């Protein structure tokens, strides 16, 4: 019998340092009005000094495990662009912080698409019978790679973490996750990148150029490609699962920019009222954004069992991916 993956628990965590637009406008050439109208963002959260991605990931992971009623899981998969160190991966540290030392744990790097890639990876582990439960986390301390001199990126990103526990099952229906549509285009890697710090720059024998150690993005081109690829990918996954746009109760997309979410919903023919959007409150939290948005909507009581969610993301790589999820009857809120 084909094994499937089911959502068994969910949780999220935000660091305590709230940064309203006005605080950024006080130290760089921008304004609350520009940020709100161009991105929909009113505030974001930055991790306190000393707090790293593994700290946020462990908090979100603990909440998801509590929601699933589990003290242990079979594996930990962490999606992040901002690992604690370039080497080793951060997931084993998260597992150790959760008292799960010994279980398989590894990172997935697909920037803002990371959580969808990590979910697909977890579904593969479950389908192959490697484990019966997987903790899938998206966590970022994006503030650590933002260039304080670059107003175009500094105002967009925030820190945070979200997590889901997936459990193996044998049926479709409530809780089922998948199928997936995933893709990449490495010819676009310069559009979203941190140029320095990897083998390419070290092999060049040259010191990093000023600013190259920070995140950079060609915002306008990314905007265009984000809408195009998410729409294509979302349509592909709807085709795989046999749903029409009208069957989707919630569009749960990567929170890149409010205007991207609105445009995508319009292109897909999904009413704006069905779009999950928490970007105003948390900014773009990259790999954390989808589970964070879904958990906040869950905590606010917006879902009922059987609701159909369409998840879609686009990010550096370039990468993109989509999946679907039928909301489960979670018993440990
Ligand atoms: N405050 C004020 N002005 C700013 C600014 C800021 N924070 N950032 C850029 N500007 C200026 C630019 O310098 C430019 O000025 P100019 O016209 O005098 O040259 C003007 O605003 C327009 O810049 P542009 O980059 O074309 O704006 P935009 O409407 O495309 O919005 C983004 C910029 C970044 C908000 C938008 O492109 C975007 O959201 N892109 C996708 C981001 C994303 O999703 N990234 C995550 C990867 S999935």
Structure notes:
This protein is globular. It has two domains: 4-169, Thiolase/Chalcone synthase (Peroxisomal Thiolase, Chain A, domain 1), CATH 3.40.47.10; 176-326, Peroxisomal Thiolase, Chain A, domain 1 (3-Layer(aba) Sandwich), CATH 3.40.47.10. Helices cover 32% and strands 24% of the residues. The protein is α+β, with helices and mostly antiparallel strands and 333 residues long. It has eleven helices and 13 strands. The model has no long low-confidence stretch (mean pLDDT 96). The chain has a nine-stranded mixed sheet, with helices on both faces. The protein has a two-stranded antiparallel ribbon with strand order 2-3. A two-stranded antiparallel ribbon has the order 9-10. The protein has helices at 21-25, 32-39, 53-68, 91-97, 114-127, 151-154, 199-203, 219-241, 258-268, 279-282, 289-299; strands spanning 4-13, 17-20, 43-46, 75-79, 105-108, 133-140, 160-169, 176-184, 192-194, 215-217, 250-253, 308-315, 319-326. It binds coenzyme A. Coenzyme A binds at residues 30, 34, 38-39, 112, 151-152, 155, 192, 217, 219-220, 222-223, 226, 256-257, 260, 284, 314-315. Coenzyme A (COA) binds at residues 30, 34, 38-39, 112, 151-152, 155, 192, 217, 219-220, 222-223, 226, 256-257, 260, 284, 314-315.
């Amino acid at each position: 019998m084909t094994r499937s993956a089911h959502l068994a628990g969910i949780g999220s965590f935000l660091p305590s340092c709230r940064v309203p637009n006005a605080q950024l406008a006080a130290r760089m050439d921008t304004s609350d009005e520009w940020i709100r109208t161009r991105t929909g963002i009113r505030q974001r959260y930055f991790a306190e000094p000393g707090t790293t991605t593994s700290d946020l990931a462990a908090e979100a992971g603990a909440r998801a495990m509590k929601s699933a009623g589990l003290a242990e899981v079979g594996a930990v998969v962490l999606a992040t662009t901002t690992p604690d160190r370039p080497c080793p991966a951060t997931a084993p540290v998260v597992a150790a912080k959760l008292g799960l030392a010994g279980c398989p744990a590894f990172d997935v790097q697909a920037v803002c698409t990371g959580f969808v890639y990590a979910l697909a990876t977890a579904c593969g582990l479950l389908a192959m019978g490697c484990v019966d439960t997987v903790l899938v986390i998206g966590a970022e301390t994006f503030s650590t790679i933002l260039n304080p001199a670059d107003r175009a990126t500094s105002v967009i990103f925030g820190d945070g973490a979200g997590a889901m526990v997936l459990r193996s099952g044998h049926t479709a229906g409530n809780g089922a996750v998948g199928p997936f549509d995933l893709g990449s285009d490495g010819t676009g890697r310069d559009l979203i990148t941190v140029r320095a710090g990897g083998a390419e720059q070290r092999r060049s024998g040259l010191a990093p150029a000023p600013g190259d150690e920070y995140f950079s993005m060609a915002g306008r081109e990314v905007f265009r490609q984000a809408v195009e690829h998410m729409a294509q990918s979302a349509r592909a996954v709807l085709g795989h699962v046999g749903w029409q746009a009208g069957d989707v109760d919630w569009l749960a997309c990567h929170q890149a920019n409010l205007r991207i979410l609105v445009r995508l919903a319009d292109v897909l023919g999904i009413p704006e009222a069905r779009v999950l959007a928490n970007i105003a409150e948390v900014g773009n939290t990259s790999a954390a954004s989808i589970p964070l948005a879904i958990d906040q909507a869950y905590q606010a009581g917006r879902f009922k069992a059987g609701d159909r969610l369409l998840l879609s993301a686009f990010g550096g790589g370039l990468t993109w991916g989509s999946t679907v999820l039928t909301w489960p009857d979670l018993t440990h809120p």
